């Protein structure tokens, strides 16, 4: 039965998951002053109690002043903040779950708060725009790389089971990948995607030194940006390989391949999606994600569009034939902590629709 593929254990390095379900990272602005609350810990514990294989937390800011653009999004530095994250880890582990923090820097992406000097590869927020801040200096680049490594080291010390770097959706690492926002002429820029990947590769190398060889390091990537849904870092499989292979060589273990709709082919002439191509080209395990279990994609949700439960039969067929290894589930799990149990037990009539109001609640 295809459903068996979703509930097969997965092991990679020290990560030993009971099934293939990953809770995708979803920003939840419920950490006043950047400190996760008891409610946040309980929110993650509920998913662990209900058989989520690996929880990836909401994005959490590394130690740069402007790594976040919302004062209620959690930070991953500071004594109070790390103590609160330790409680989250302990709650998830007490429920038998596994958890990884998503380490984040928003870069030039705009938000409701400005929390310090904005970091940006070239002072641009989108292709063809006018510079609105100064490009990062060599010292600022080096400090940011060190901030990611320090966060990864702290994650391991706190007992997290893995870490994920947010390299997607037009945030800082992705701003270095994208030729629309990275027009640098130094070692961290250049006309090719391989050259523009150096910033991410240096972060991965520093993280690997910080956590050691057996600790799983995930990197989340996307072709699309919040600034431009249609743009691609890699227009061909050859360019995709030129982008991903240096990251694998630098220490990325698992690629978390974000699409708005997981079923869409990445390139013409093949039905492989982004995660399928990433696995084919690098041999690394991959996570697929994008509207799993729901009828509508998540960008529309912010505009008020609801989504109904949708069949995952096509997803299961792809997973069963090995196109990708793990499945990221976002809004379906945000709305319903019991989604995994209901899928496993065939209680499809109990699956919940997703409504925008769920973004304002910690179910």
UniProtKB/TrEMBL annotation:
Species name: Caulobacter henricii
CDD domains (UniProt xref): OYE_like_5_FMN
A Pfam family hit: Oxidored_FMN
Record-linked SUPFAM superfamilies: FMN-linked oxidoreductases
GO cellular component term, pick one: cytosol
Residue ranges of every copy of the NADH:flavin oxidoreductase/NADH oxidase N-terminal domain listed in the record: 6-292
Database matches in InterPro entries: Aldolase_TIM (IPR013785), OxRdtase_FMN_N (IPR001155), Oye-like (IPR045247)
Single GO molecular function: FMN binding
Name this protein carries in UniProt: 1,2-oxophytodienoate reductase
């Amino acid at each position: 039965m295809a459903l068996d593929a979703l509930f097969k254990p997965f092991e990679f390095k020290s990560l030993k998951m009971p099934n293939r379900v990953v809770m995708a990272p979803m920003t939840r602005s419920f950490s006043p002053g950047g400190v996760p609350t008891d409610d946040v810990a309980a929110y993650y514990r509920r998913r662990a109690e209900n058989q989520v294989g690996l929880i990836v937390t909401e994005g959490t800011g590394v130690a740069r002043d402007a790594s976040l653009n919302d004062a209620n999004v959690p930070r991953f530095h500071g004594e109070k903040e790390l103590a609160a994250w330790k409680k989250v880890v302990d709650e998830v582990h007490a429920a038998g779950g596994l958890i990884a923090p998503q380490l984040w820097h928003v870069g030039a992406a705009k938000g409701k708060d400005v929390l310090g000097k904005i970091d940006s590869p070239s002072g641009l927020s989108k292709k063809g725009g006018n510079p609105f801040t100064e490009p990062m200096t060599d010292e600022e680049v080096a400090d940011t790389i060190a901030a990611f490594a320090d966060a990864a080291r702290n994650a391991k010390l706190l007992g997290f089971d893995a870490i994920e770097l947010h390299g997607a959706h037009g945030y800082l690492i992705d701003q270095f990948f994208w030729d629309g926002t990275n027009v640098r002429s130094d070692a961290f820029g250049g006309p090719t995607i391989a050259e523009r990947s150096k910033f991410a590769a240096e972060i991965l190398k520093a993280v690997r030194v910080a956590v050691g060889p057996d600790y799983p390091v995930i990197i989340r990537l996307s072709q699309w940006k919040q600034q431009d849904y249609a743009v691609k870092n890699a227009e061909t499989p050859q360019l995709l390989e030129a982008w991903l292979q240096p990251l694998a060589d630098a220490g990325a273990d698992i690629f978390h391949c974000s699409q708005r709709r997981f079923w869409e082919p990445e390139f013409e002439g093949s039905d492989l999606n982004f995660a399928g191509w990433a696995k084919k080209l690098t041999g690394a395990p991959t996570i697929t994600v994008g509207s799993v279990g729901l009828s509508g994609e998540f960008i529309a949700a912010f505009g008020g569009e609801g989504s109904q439960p949708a069949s995952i039969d096509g997803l299961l067929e792809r997973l069963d034939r090995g196109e990708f290894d793990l499945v990221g589930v976002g809004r379906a799990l945000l709305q319903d902590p019991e989604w995994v149990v209901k899928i496993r037990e065939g209680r499809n009539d109990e699956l919940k629709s997703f409504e925008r109001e769920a973004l304002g609640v910690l179910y």
